Amino acid sequence: MRGVVTTGCSLVKERRRANLDMKNILLVHTGGTLGMSGRRPDALKPGSFFRTVRERVPELTKLARLEFDIFSNIDSCEMQPELWSRLAARLAERLPEFDGAVITHGTDTLAETACALSYMLPGLDKPVVLTGAQRPLGEIRSDARLNLIDAVTSALHGPKEVTVCFDSHLFRGNRVRKVSIAEYDAFDSPNFPVLGVLGVDAKFSPGLQRKGGLRLAERVDPRVFLLRVFPGLDPSIPLSILPHIKGLVVEAYGAGNFPSSKELGRSLIPVFREAQHLGVPVVVISQAPRNGVDLSLYESGSQARLSGAVSGGDMTVSAAVVKLMHGLANYRGASLNKYLQRSVAGERS
Ligand code: ASP
Where are the beta strands (DSSP E) in the chain? Predict the structure, then answer.
């Protein structure tokens, strides 16, 4: 301010005060393109992430007091359910000391990790924001810089739930899907409005209000299978898989439709019946990304329902698969059916 003379001593005090007023954000790195070094078209190698963050985005430290935590340094195609559980446990342990967390993650399976964390951290009452990038942080025209600043801003001021921050938008974590490999708007949320827009101003919606305090429900059973219906699908293939799995997600056509005519020899009804016989729960979702499944609309859907299949509503593929894994490890019978059909963390309307 003009006319105000600040002595060295009061400057130090001011800085100290400003620093004390700052919120604490935990930045957990899991890997992905954002933190990799190396030039395309060579294979990207995980680099020394935090040094690059400090060099490339020094203003992050003006937004919040950051603590860096390297959870892993992997391409997200290597992310597995056991790692989701460990990540959820790490957050449950560390979040009480922080105002929020940012998780840097590869974009390929970022949606699945976001879903898993949303189910595994019931009662979450702080923002947990996942972000990534299409270009490494060290590269010119990288989207990583803005994504990191936006993610930290969202962790400071955004809704208290698991979200995904990408390309100036904040999404509910269990509603996203990756839609682009080479554009900066890599994610969308086909059945749920954005929770925040980070434009000239950052504007956020309130998000979920979960009660009861943060708990950890980290168990998952990955023995599920995803069956996408297509013309020509031989039912004997899914029938042969059923004895090896504990749960099945069927990605049906439209409102929950699939072949059921006996004449053409490719009816999938025997698959639903055999699943019921073996006690394998079946969730039906749609290949159409927008809107949700209604099993009462067509004959095939009705028959699936009679064989015990449940509607996955408007869940994304990732939300349904991960929810089934989580449900199988935590519920049985009727309570599993209920769990699958209700909104646990805002993943279905
Ligand atoms: N293959 C990378 C990953 O998912 C892609 C990315 O981060 O954008 O780890």
Answer: 24-31, 36-37, 45-46, 65-74, 100-104, 128-131, 162-166, 169-172, 177-178, 187-188, 196-198, 202-204, 224-228, 247-252, 282-286, 310-311
